[in-house]
Structure formats: structure tokens, C-alpha cells
Specification:
mainly alpha; about 0% strand; about 65% helix; about 160 residues
């Protein structure tokens, strides 16, 4: 578990510069920050505790790699018997799969939004500015008022 954590942390540090360049942000892991260190330590401990609670599932041994169980296993019922934690394990697998799909969709959505923001034409001409629309209306107010007064009273 410790080796996997160190490998994952190394991969994060290796990929972080490319991620920062892609998003235009400056994310960093600051090991002098106590909150980050405590959070990483809590993740290691929580993962270790959950791992110890799950039973180990050993693969069924086969003869000659043909997928055939050893002779005594099927007769004694050991081949079809599942451990008590198999339902919990299935729930965890489904949860992990669902979470990974949600993270992928979220990542793609954020990527599309960032691309849109970078490529959006932020036209700041006077015609789109609210002050210019108010000034234009103020100039033509007299014409607008005359037109309204020329309408029948039922339409005013």
C-alpha cells in the first residue's frame, strides 16, 4: 500500500506541470502545508483500514490452465462457495466504477468549458455596452413618446 501511494504521488507530481499548462492554473503539492500532509496521511490510513476489513479473494486453481476446477473442489462445494465479503466487494467495485465515470464526465465538461472561455469572442464594442443602449434610447425618447401618444388610448 505504501509503495502504491508513493507511485501515485510521484505520478501526480510528474503530470502536474502538464496539467497546469493545459488549464492555465498553478496547482502544486506543498508538503510544508500541514493540512495537505494530514489529508494525505488520513487517505493512507483510511485506505489501509478498509483494505484490512475486506477478505482476500484467491483465484480458483485450475488444471493445465483450461479453466477446470480440481476434482475435489466441485464435489465438496468449495468451487461455488463465495466468501461473506463478496457482496461488499461488489458494491465497492460498482461504486468505484460509478465514481470513475462521474470524474471522467466532469473532467470532459470542465475541459470543454475552459476551451469555450479561451476561444470566446468577448466583443467589447460600444453597441453591446449597456450605457450606449441607454444613451441611444435617451436620444430617441422624444420620438418614442410622440409615437406612443399617437396610439389610441386602449393601446397605451
Amino acid at each position: 500500500m505504501g509503495l502504491a501511494f508513493v507511485a501515485a504521488l510521484g505520478l501526480c507530481l510528474f503530470v502536474m506541470s502538464a496539467f497546469n499548462q493545459l488549464t492555465g492554473k498553478s496547482l502544486a503539492l506543498d508538503f510544508s502545508n500541514g493540512r495537505q500532509v494530514v489529508g494525505l496521511a488520513a487517505a493512507i490510513l483510511l485506505t489501509g483500514l478498509v483494505r484490512r476489513k475486506l477478505p482476500v479473494r484467491r483465484p480458483l486453481r485450475t488444471e493445465a490452465g483450461l479453466g477446470l476446477a480440481r476434482r475435489g473442489d466441485t464435489a465438496s462445494g468449495r468451487a461455488g462457495r463465495r466468501s461473506g465479503g463478496s457482496a461488499f466487494r461488489r458494491v465497492l467495485v460498482v461504486f468505484q466504477f460509478t465514481l470513475s465515470i462521474i470524474l471522467l464526465v466532469g473532467t470532459l465538461t470542465v475541459h470543454k468549458q475552459l476551451r469555450f472561455i479561451r476561444q470566446a469572442d468577448l466583443d467589447s464594442t460600444k453597441k453591446h455596452h449597456p450605457d450606449s443602449a441607454q444613451r441611444t434610447f435617451a436620444k430617441q425618447y422624444a420620438v418614442f413618446k410622440t409615437e406612443l401618444l399617437g396610439l389610441p388610448p386602449s393601446l397605451r
